[in-house]
Amino acid sequence: MKQTTINETCKKELRERACREIARWMYDATIPFNVVNYSRFEVMIEAIGQYSVGVKPPSFHEVRVPLLKKEVDSVTALMKSYEEEWAKYGFSIMADGWTDKKNRTLINFLVNSPRGLVFLESIDASDYAKIGEKMFELFDKFVERVGEANVVQIVTDNASANVLAGKKLFSYFNSIFQVLKYLALMV
User: Fold this and answer.
1) b/e for 155-178, b at 16 or more Cβ within 10 A?
2) What span, in angstroms and rounded, lies between the C-alpha atoms of 156 and 136?
3) Residues 109, 142: contact at Cβ < 8 Å?
4) Are strands 151-156 and 116-124 parallel, antiparallel or unpaired?
5) d(CA 161, CA 38)
6) From CA 160, how far away is CA 162, in angstroms rounded?
7) CA proximity to 180, closest of 167, 112, 143, 121
8) 99 contacts 105 by C-beta, under 8 angstroms
9) Which residues, in sequence order, are CB contacts of 184 under 8 Å at separation 6+?
10) Is the Cβ–Cβ distance between 95 and 108 less than 8 Å?
């Protein structure tokens, strides 16, 4: 049987205290528990641990201005690399419609490519989700936004307004192959 050293006992107590403080902060700030499953959470904890004793947390201003700007720049650079790959291999626009608890019709627009899935935007389409012409205008806006030349297909559910919009898009943009597919949301 292995004997526990003083150092091991001390580290165990320090970890217990750190975990309790992280948990208390999460409870106080109403942060969902599943954030601990994000890979970035582990990276953050590791970075804090490497700093050693006395790390000062970022200020409100630092989080709100310079750190946010750096992250926006980082995401912008990442998006450029995605867009370069989209130009080479093409992509699918995915429009996933669903109804929220307030009975609004929301449509999530995503781009799927060999590089991965990218969320573009969520639109409240409550006023026009059942109007084919309006759905065409909405789909057209996203095709123009990401570049028609690279769109291989548009994937939507089979609502009649989407079918009509898809037919119009198909005739308007000859290069797009429309796929009607029912996308089931797992809630």
Assistant:
1) bbbebebbbebbebbeeebeebeb
2) 12
3) yes
4) unpaired
5) 37
6) 5
7) 167
8) yes
9) none
10) yes
SS3 123: strand
Q: pLDDT, tens digit, for every residue of 63-90?
A: 999 999 999 999 999 999 999 999 999 9
Cα 102 to chain centroid, rounded: 22
Nearest Cα to Cα of residue 167 among 125, 115, 132: 132
Residue 158 — φ and ψ, nearest 5°? -100, 30
Q: Looking up tokens 């559910």, which residue turns up?
A: 157
For 23-64, the pLDDT digits (tens) are 999 999 999 999 999 999 999 999 998 987 888 999 999 999
**Nearest C-alpha neighbor of 93 from the set 32, 144, 160, 38:** 144
d(CA 45, CA 49) in angstroms, rounded, equals: 6
Q: Report how far residue 125's alpha carbon sits from residue 97's, in angstroms, rounded to the nearest whole number.
A: 9
Task: Say whether 81 sits in a helix, a strand or coil.
Answer: helix
- Which residue matches tokens 């969520």? 122
Q: Kindly report the number of other CB atoms within 10 A of residue 94's CB atom.
A: 20
